[in-house]
Design goal:
This protein is an alpha+beta fold. The protein has a five-stranded antiparallel beta sheet, sandwiched between helices. A five-stranded mixed beta sheet has the order 13-12-14-15-16, sandwiched between helices. Strands 6-9-10-11 form a four-stranded antiparallel beta sheet, covered by helices on one side. The chain has four domains: 87 residues, Alpha-Beta Complex (DNA Primase, Chain A), CATH 3.90.580; 130 residues, DNA primase DNAg catalytic core, N-terminal domain (Alpha-Beta Complex), CATH 3.90.980; 100 residues, Dna Topoisomerase Vi A Subunit, Chain: A, domain 2 (3-Layer(aba) Sandwich), CATH 3.40.1360; 138 residues, DNAb Helicase, Chain A (Orthogonal Bundle), CATH 1.10.860. The chain is built from 26 helices and 16 strands.
């Protein structure tokens, strides 16, 4: 992609509202002048992710991530700056310069483009004569044309290298196609062949709606496996990707609840019948990463798996995973022989939603399954059930929820709560892993860098929010008064290039800063809050504090040296340091303003 003019980047930044973009990935609520939510970049239970709509920046006070709308897209989608600009330009309807023949530098950019080409190619082929079997299968399953279009379903042809030839003619490197999981190298080491052949194709997208992988169902009864999925790639991680979440997240957020089904067709069947707050854990079992992702949008997870023995087993495993992440877990028990798709087609959406409304809790379902295997009226049956249910309770990391489940389980099984609690605590102690001993050949891990002094961050935050104070600050202070190298760099940038600024475009400043640490510092400082009626007083107090800071550091260093000299009994050095300390203290006193004046 050619160089994008700065004025065009600024236009895209202004058009792409950061609150709207972030809201597509996490649930935000208004708090003061900011919006807050659970950080999408690290696991947390208490929201520490802040978005400021006035400054058009974000900052997480838990993991220190921060930046503008371009940086957010870069981090959430793992793309380069250029690809982030291109994505937001498309979103806002702003045209970019036509691409040159130079490929993008970033691996992720190339993988996205290869995957998007494959999605368009397979979708185009679905309407061609050679895809009659795929269309017949979709019609047999009751999938309508609008659903096929909405989710970009496609068909891979029977030829061994049909897509490979198309992609290489478009200039794609075979190594990139292989890295994207679209082709495989031949065993002889000569050439490549398509991974997906003669299969119905389900494109898998990330939260931004970009194609990252594919699921593929065979069209032949003798072809194995029945479902073939993309391998792990730099842009696709099975354990943290859910089919349909891009389309479903707004409905999930509104409902504060999500239905989890197992397959692509189950998800499409529900979506087609107007049940929008659903996702599919296609290609892998439900994981804690999946649940943490869902926790950004919902508080309640309802498992809607097949009504057979395998579905019940999957529900039991899923319940433990959901509880481990602190979400409310429920299960819908479908009548035997039904999966979510066949049930909703036979009984309708209202019937399924009725089952969802009555969905049993994790404990209800677990006890129901245990009752089918053990006679809970006998001592032996109760003992076995109590032992089995401990695995469910042990996975629940929320201590309050675990205690409530334990009390209810003891009551319903008719066993002594105190004894049951003691047994569970012993089980938890046995499961707690010992901390591994550090390797002998390596030293301790270096401590994390100390944050800049609070007053330095506060001062720079004041300047970022009130740039009319930068010139006066530069007249009275030198960047060297800042003790932390990061705040010193930011002060040098503001006192230099932005000395005469009356307004600051913070996202543009972040782009100018370049260094990721400096970008994070800008977003952190800009989030500092100040009493608007006392801005001048804040500035005067912080300016005085900073001007005195080097002298204060000298005094502290002198005191430390004095203590050392006293411990060593060095009389001459003690006398010298005492005189120096007195001189420094008097000098600082003379610099302080007279309160009576």
């Amino acid at each position: 992609m050619p160089q994008i003019p700065q004025e065009l980047i600024q236009r895209i930044r202004e058009a792409a509202d950061i609150v709207e973009v972030v809201s597509e990935h996490i649930q935000l609520r208004k708090t003061g002048r900011n919006f807050v939510g659970l950080c999408p970049f690290h696991g947390e239970k208490t929201p520490s992710f802040n978005v400021n709509p006035e400054l058009q920046i974000y900052k997480c006070f838990g993991c220190d991530a921060g930046g503008d709308v371009f940086k957010f897209v870069q981090q959430i989608d793992r793309v380069s700056f250029t690809e982030a600009v291109a994505h937001l330009a498309q979103r806002t309807g702003i045209a970019l310069p036509t691409p040159s023949q130079q490929p993008a530098d970033e691996l992720s950019d190339q993988l996205y483009r290869a995957s998007e080409l494959a999605a368009k190619y397979y979708h185009h082929l679905l309407r061609q004569p050679q895809s009659r079997e795929a269309l017949a299968y979709l019609q047999q399953r009751g999938i309508r044309d609008e659903t096929t279009e909405r989710f970009g379903l496609g068909c891979a042809p029977a030829e061994w290298d049909a897509f490979f030839k198309v992609a290489t003619r478009r200039g794609f490197d075979p190594a990139i196609l292989e890295r994207a999981g679209l082709v495989s190298a031949r065993r002889e080491g000569k050439g490549f062949y398509d991974r997906f052949r003669e299969r119905l194709i389900f494109p898998i997208t990330n939260l931004s709606g970009r194609t990252i992988a594919f699921g593929a169902r065979t069209l032949k009864t003798d072809q194995q496996p029945k479902y073939l999925n993309s391998p792990e790639t730099p842009i696709y991680h099975k354990s943290s990707t859910l089919y349909g979440l891009h389309q479903a997240r707004e409905a999930i957020r509104q409902q504060e609840s999500v239905l989890v089904v197992e397959g692509y067709m189950d998800y499409l069947g529900l979506a087609q019948h107007g049940i929008e707050h659903a996702v599919a854990s296609a290609g892998t079992a439900l994981t804690e990463e999946h649940c943490r992702l869902l926790g950004r949008f919902a508080r309640r997870v309802v498992l809607v798996f097949d009504g057979d023995e395998a579905g019940s087993a999957a529900s039991l495993r899923g319940l433990e995973v959901v509880l481990a992440t602190g979400l409310e877990a429920c299960v819908v028990s479908l009548p035997g022989g039904h999966d979510p798709d066949t049930y909703v087609q036979a009984e309708g959406a209202a019937a399924l939603l009725g089952l969802v409304a009555k969905a049993g809790s994790a404990l209800d379902f677990h006890l129901e399954q245990l009752a089918q295997r053990h006679d809970l009226r006998t001592l032996e049956g109760k003992a076995r059930a109590a032992e089995a249910i401990q695995s469910l309770l042990a996975r629940c990391r929320d201590a309050v929820r675990r205690d409530l489940l334990l009390r209810e389980a003891a009551q319903r099984l008719g066993i002594d709560e105190k004894a049951f609690r003691q047994q569970l605590q012993e089980s938890l102690r046995r499961q707690t892993p010992r901390a591994p001993s550090p390797p002998q050949e390596t030293g301790p891990a270096p401590p994390p860098p100390n944050p800049p002094p609070a007053y330095e961050k506060a001062f720079l935050g004041l300047l970022l929010n009130h740039p009319q104070l930068i010139a006066s600050s530069a007249d009275q202070l030198q960047p060297e008064v800042f003790a932390d190298p990061r705040t010193q760099s930011l002060a040098r940038l503001l006192f230099g290039e932005y000395r005469q600024a009356r307004e600051l475009d913070l996202p543009a400043l972040m782009g100018r800063a370049g260094d990721p640490e400096l970008v994070q510092l800008i977003s952190s400082c800009a989030m500092e809050g100040f009493d608007p009626e006392h801005i001048q007083q804040h500035w005067e107090d912080l300016t005085r504090h900073l001007s005195e800071a080097p002298l204060t550091r000298q005094i502290n260093q002198c005191r430390q040296a004095l203590k050392q000299a006293e411990r060593e009994g060095n009389t001459g050095e003690v006398d010298r340091l005492n005189a120096e300390l007195m001189h420094l203290i008097l000098h600082r006193q003379r610099r302080k303003p007279d309160p009576s004046s």
